[in-house]
Structure formats: C-alpha cells, structure tokens
Specification:
Keywords: Signal. This is PepSY domain-containing protein. It comes from Coprococcus hominis (ex Liu et al. 2022). By secondary structure, the chain is α+β, with helices and mostly antiparallel strands. The protein contains eight helices and 27 strands. Helix content is 17%, strand content 28%.
Length: 544
C-alpha cells in the first residue's frame, strides 16, 4: 500500500507500487570523466558488474546541466548510488497486450481454489441468500458495537445497509451458479476451510488486465482473525505502519520469509506467471480496531512478497510517475498512469490469503539482443544538449532540480508501428525524490527524465504514459471535489464495489479505511523552491 496526494485534487489514492530496483556490487576500476563541469574522482565504475564497467558508469556522480532558456535556475545530478543491471548486455524485448479468455480464467480458478468443494460464479446483482445473510450478520455485529460506543453515524449506516440487504433477500437465490464455461468475471471458491473471491478485470483501452484474490466476504475478515474487543482487522505491508518495520516484533508466521517467497512463486506459476523477479518483501502487519476505529492491537503474522516482470533478469522501473511535476501543469488536467506489471502476494500461516496481479503483457518471443548502448560520457553529452529544451517544452514549478536517483533499467513503451505491441527498452532514469522527514521515497518522484539508453533521446513522459491517461475533469470539478456519480451515494446501494466493500488497494481488510495514518499523504509541489538553497549550491561537480 502506497500513499500519494494529487497535485491539483484533494483525493487520496492508495497503491501497491514498490521500487523495482536492486543495488548490486560493482567492479573496481579507475575511470576518466571529463564531461561538462564534472570533476574526476577515483572510485568504482558503477554497481552493475560487467555492463557498468564497459559503459564507464561511476558509482556516484555530481554535476550540473545546461539550463538554457528553460527558466530553471539550476539542474543538478547528485547521486551517490547509481544503479545498473547486473548483466553484461541489454536487449529490447517485445510483448503484446494480454487478455483473459475462458480457458485462462478456468486455469487460474482451478489452480487457486479447491475444485472438489466447487467453484461458483459471483454475481453482485443476484447474490444468494447465504451471501446476504453473511453480510447481515456482519453488519449486525458492527451495529451492536456502534450502539455500545455511541457512534451514531456508523449506527445509521449499518441500519440502512442491513435494510438494503434484507430487501434483496426477496429476490435472492438459494444456491450459487456453477462456474460453467468460465465466461464470468468474479468467482467464489474454497481455500482450505475459508471462502475467497477471485475477480478478473480487463478493459478495451490501454493495458489493464488484472486479477485479485481476497477473503470473502471482506467485512467478515474479523471472523478469520478474531481478537477480543476488535470489530475490524486490516492486514498490509509493515513498511507503511506508523513506525515502519519494527525488528523487535516477532513474526509468528509458521513459514519463514524464504518459504513465503517460494509459496508466492508457486502461486504465480500455477497461474501461468513465471517470468517474474522479487522486488520487495516485508512482514504482514495486522491491525485490530474497536468499533470506534481505535487500534487496540497489532501483530506481525505473515509476509507480503512483491514481484515485477523479469526482463533478462532485471525488474523494470516501476516508480509511480503520476506525481512528476511536469505532468501537472494548469493547462493539462490529465491523470497519467504507467503500464507497470506488478504482482503482490500476501501469505500467513495458512498460505496465500490475498493477491493483486497485473499480468498486462505476454511475450511475443521477438527480441533484439545485445543492443548498443551509449557510454556514460556520451549519455551526459546528449543529456546536457537536450535537457534545457525538454524543460522549455515541459514546464515545471520547480526553480531548482536535483536528480538524486539515477539508474539504467528497462521501461515498457508502446510500439507505435504495431497494434497492441509494447517493448521493454533500455532507458536511463534521472529522477528527483523530495525529502520528507529525513527520508526519500524514490517510488514517488517529483521530477523525472526518461532517456533512451541507445541514442540519448529524452522521451516525453506524456507520450510514454498517455495510454493510461484519465482526465481529472471527468471525475472532479474545479474545486477538486468528486463529481456526482463517481462516489458512494446513500440512495444507490448498487454503486458499492462488487463485493460490497472497498477494494483496499491490495490490502486485506474488513472495512473501507486502509488502516494507516493519512496525515503525511501530502507531497509538496515545490513551487519556487529548489532542493538546495542559494547558499547550498554546489561549487564543484564531483565524480566518484
């Protein structure tokens, strides 16, 4: 679960995008860099082994770029940990848009669920009496807790929703419909003694094939993990707990971290997904709340394992670029999204309990191997030549830019010469993450340049991300308030998500809140402020 705030809107979005890069040890080599005003410093030649050495990539770099007529006061590169792939070459790897046919949905359902206990279609419009009664029971418990706590708002909501469910009973069926030909989108099945929902989603525009596994019904998860005095329970990545990961807390999961990774890999392989690489793993934090939403207990029990697509053994760049300042000008109210393939699996002592998977692409088998890449020296020459024009064409509110995250990686870019074909291409990322309470979240950069590693061309991010664009104005008015029809309306209970609850953005939960502290969600827009002030400007550019 990640947190962000839209630059121009008030809506807070939660995500599960995690950093895809891993730092590798490098080869020692003294190199000569005389580009621009960078000065040579002895040290290692990057952190990616043979490729880094061959391209002359330093472990660190500090230098300035020409600002031209861009209106920016200073553009600086300052990174003490440049990342490159641990390989000897890079390729251009071709993929095509993925889609789910009936056979694939059947394969995934039968890989996840206990077929002997039945696999059934879930239809929110035609729920069974058992479905409705389970929800009524859960909301009756919530209602009793709300009355005891004097929470009249929750009490009124529960009464209204219980009334809605009771009315639905009149037309509800006694039994579920079997999976049949697997042409439906949502399914209910058993994993062990527990019931889960598996939902498939794909659209006609852009890349959005995904499937999600979650406990069913989500509001009943407190029954899965009961705790005395608790009315709700939430499970999410411990990194996003109030204090981050606490090493003093014992993880009571019966599986080790390595065993959890293996279980997650087996889960994905059963779904036909095996060309992935681990990008992150953390303890699974469970938070228990009373009826007034006060945390009464926390524990670590399980793990969350995140994967990215493996392109020649490298995880592509997967930071959330939607907050990059050049994408948020007043003249452009579009939300830019990225074709990022991520796979997030939650595991407790019972095994896999939650999954959020985005297999957006399938390989075409057509690769351009061992493409020629610019050396570090050539790259800096091209960057120095082109960056001023880029910022002239793509305005930013920042007067000073400091790229503190530099890496050679892959990124998924649409092949305009072919329908529904995308290429993972070698790119250099020059990104800036702003400091927040002494830390930098490089998963949410505020500045970013994406540079073609073969010729030094700077990609226009609006073109790269355009396939996933959603205009803000379709959903929000000029004051940043959600337009009627796009948020829950008490008079229209059918506007609730298909399982009657919030999707939790990949979290396991039994309620609509993410269970985390939203007080730090804001990201400053940096207007008229640089990362370093006038007195702190760099006098010399240094290469290590």
């Amino acid at each position: 679960m990640k947190k962000r705030k839209l630059t121009k809107m008030s809506a807070v979005l939660l995500a599960t995008a995690l950093s895809a890069a891993t730092v590798f040890s490098g080869c020692n080599k003294k190199v000569d860099y005389d580009m621009g005003d960078g000065t040579q410093k002895e040290g290692s030649a990057g952190e990616g082994g043979e490729l880094s050495s061959r391209l002359g990539v330093p472990e660190s770099y500090e230098g300035k770029l020409d600002v031209g007529d861009s209106g920016i006061k200073e553009i600086t590169i300052k990174d003490d940990d440049i990342i490159t792939p641990d390989s000897d070459s890079m390729s251009i790897v071709s993929y095509k848009k993925n889609s789910f046919d009936n056979a694939y949905r059947q394969k995934v359902c039968e890989a996840i669920f206990d077929k002997s206990k039945g696999i059934y279609v879930y239809d929110f419009e035609h729920q069974t009496k058992s479905d409705l009664q389970t929800q009524i029971d859960s909301y009756q418990t919530m209602l009793a807790d709300a009355k005891e706590a004097g929470d009249t708002d929750t009490e009124d909501y529960c009464k209204e929703y219980i009334s809605y469910l009771e009315n639905e009973m009149a037309t509800a069926t006694d039994e579920r419909e079997g999976a049949g030909d697997y042409s439906a989108s949502d399914y209910i099945g058993q994993i062990g003694d527990n019931q889960f929902m598996l939902s498939f989603s794909e659209g006609t525009e852009g890349l959005n094939a995904s499937f999600d596994l979650s406990y069913y019904p989500s509001e009943g998860m407190i029954n899965y993990r009961p705790y005395e005095g608790a009315s709700f329970v939430y499970a999410y990545d411990a990194k996003y707990g109030e204090e981050g990961i606490d090493d003093s807390i014992v993880n009571t999961c019966t599986f080790s971290e390595d065993e959890a990774v293996s279980l997650a890999q087996e889960f994905l392989a059963g779904c036909g997904i095996d060309d992935v690489i681990v990008t992150d793993k953390s303890p699974l934090l469970w938070e228990y709340y009373d009826s007034s939403y006060n945390v009464i207990a926390t524990e670590y029990e399980g793990y969350i394992v995140n994967f990215g697509r493996s392109v020649n053994g490298t995880a592509p760049y997967s930071a959330d670029l939607s907050m990059v300042d050049t994408l948020s000008s007043d003249e452009d109210d579009t939300w830019y999204d990225a074709p990022t393939e991520t796979f997030s699996i939650q595991i407790d002592s019972n095994g896999v309990i939650n999954a959020s998977c985005y297999p957006l692409l399938v390989s075409t088998g057509e690769d351009q191997k061992n493409v020629d890449l610019l050396s570090w020296k050539e790259l800096l020459k091209e960057l120095d030549k082109n960056v001023a024009q880029y910022y002239t064409d793509n305005k930013t509110s920042y007067s000073d830019i400091e790229f503190n995250d530099v890496r050679l990686t892959y990124y998924c870019i649409k092949d305009d010469s072919q329908d529904d074909v995308y290429n993972y291409v070698p790119v250099w990322i020059f990104a800036q993450a702003d400091e927040n309470d002494g830390t930098y979240d490089f998963d949410y950069p505020v500045q970013a340049l994406m540079v073609n590693a073969t010729d030094g061309t700077i990609y226009n991010l609006k073109d790269v991300l355009e396939a996933g664009s959603i205009p803000y104005s379709d959903y929000y008015d000029d004051q940043g308030d959600m337009i009627d029809g796009y948020e829950y309306d008490d008079s229209d209970m059918e506007s609730i998500d298909s399982d009657g609850s919030d999707d939790g953005s990949g979290d396991s939960s039994d309620g609509s809140d993410d269970g985390s502290d939203d007080s730090s969600d804001e990201i400053e827009d940096g207007s008229d402020e640089g990362i370093i002030d006038d007195e702190g400007l760099l006098e010399d550019d240094v290469v290590e």
